[in-house]
Amino acid sequence: MSAAVEAERVTKRFGDTVAVNAMSFTVAEGELFGFIGPDGAGKTTLFRILATLLVPDDGAARVLGRDVVRELWTLRREVGYMPGRFSLYPDLSVDENVRFFASVFGTTMEAEREGIAPIYDQLAPFRDRRAAALSGGMKQKLALCCALVHRPRILFLDEPTTGVDAVSRRELWDLLGTLKATGLTIVVSTPYMDEADRCDRVALVQRGVLLAVDTPAAVTAAYDRPLLAVRAADRFAALAAARAYPHAQAVYPFGETLHVADARRDAAREPLARELAEFLRARGIADARVEATAPTIEDAFIARMTEEAAA
Ligand SMILES: Nc1ncnc2c1ncn2[C@@H]1O[C@H](COP(=O)(O)OP(=O)(O)OP(=O)(O)O)[C@@H](O)[C@H]1O
User: Fold this and answer.
1) What is the DSSP letter of 124?
2) ipTM for the complex?
3) Where is the ABC transporter domain (predicted)?
4) Ligand 1 centroid to residue 22 C-alpha, Å
5) Pair 210, 240 in one domain
6) Measured from the CA of 159, which atom of ligand 1 is nearest?
């Protein structure tokens, strides 16, 4: 498969801030590729460079084989970009928004009706409603529809699920799956680690740096230290106590439990669980129960980010 995106040491600075720091990666054609990272990681800046809206200070990027700086005018017709915010006209109706974006690219909503059907069909009941009056999930679907209306060969979606309720998040990811099945290359960013498993490959970003690029399964498999799950009625007190544990590399809430990453890589899990339980009980967490647990991709990400922050 040829590459849909090739980035080579792409760098962008704003004053003293290095928003994107020498990022190199490739996205294959037809791939659903996710950038995962917290606020300020550089996702928006990178997406704007790949969508030809911002010029990198250093490095080079090619999208669909075209240079994002030298060939921007050709590329703009072939790329769909959905920014995190402000992509719709709030006072225009659903249909008027779609028609507007179609006209920018010299086409019409009618001509593109079949291509946008998987999304537009869900919007059609609200076609005359002003965009401002749509729910968060519907706004995102409309923005996606507008980004697709000129039949791009690649789609860049910047945080499409931020601020969207859980059901709409799932629906949006299902839609991305449907679009991927048509052969479209999709590059998406998100601050939510639990969305990683919906991607073919993910890139973990923090402070402008790529920490890992791999399949979700490989990122999870690379987690190589004992992970312990703690249950206690007073989770807050247990968290404070566990943070004082000398072998804890990272301690964080995880669902109903706390996760404690033990720094002793090669140790057997069970004795470590007993040792932590004894430590917590000695610190007043009388009901502390500790067991070894299998890492998820979120644990793997947190470990990478903690290591990097410590370095
Ligand atoms: N136009 C700008 N001028 C100055 N600094 C900027 C500009 N755009 C981004 N930055 C800074 O660059 C860094 C990366 O920002 P960016 O918006 O790319 O991150 P992000 O991962 O998309 O996070 P967010 O979800 O907050 O947008 C941040 O420190 C941000 O403050």
Assistant:
1) G
2) 0.95
3) 5-232
4) 16
5) no
6) 25
pLDDT digits (tens, 9 = 90+) for 63-95: 999 999 999 999 999 999 999 877 889 999 999
Token duo for residue 97: 């928004």
| Ligand 1, pocket-test mutation among 39, 44, 156, 188, most atoms within 8 A of CB | 44
Q: Identify the residues whose C-beta falls under 6 Å from ligand 1.
A: 14, 17, 19, 37, 39-45
Pocket-testing residue among 13, 43, 156, ligand 1, by greatest number of atoms within 8 A of Cβ? 43
Q: Which residues of the chain have pLDDT under 50?
A: none
Q: Are 242 and 229 in contact (CB under 8 A)?
A: no
Are 57 and 179 within one domain? Answer: yes
Cα of 5 from ligand 1 centre, angstroms:
22
Which of 181, 215, 249 is a domain's end point? 215
In this structure, is residue 308 part of a structural domain? no
- Tell me: do 234 and 108 sit in the same domain: no
| CA 204 to ligand 1 center in whole angstroms | 16
User: What's this model's pTM, rounded to 2 decimal places?
Assistant: 0.91
Which domain, by its residues, includes 132?
3-215
Cα 99 to Cα 93: distance, rounded to the nearest angstrom: 10
Burial label, 190 (beta-carbon count in 10 A; 0-12, 13-18, 19+): buried
| Cα 189 to ligand 1 centre (Å) | 14
d(CA 286, CA 241): 12
The pLDDT tens digits for 252-267 are 999 999 999 999 988 7
Please give the structure tokens belonging to residue 224.
């190589």
| Position 38 in a domain | yes
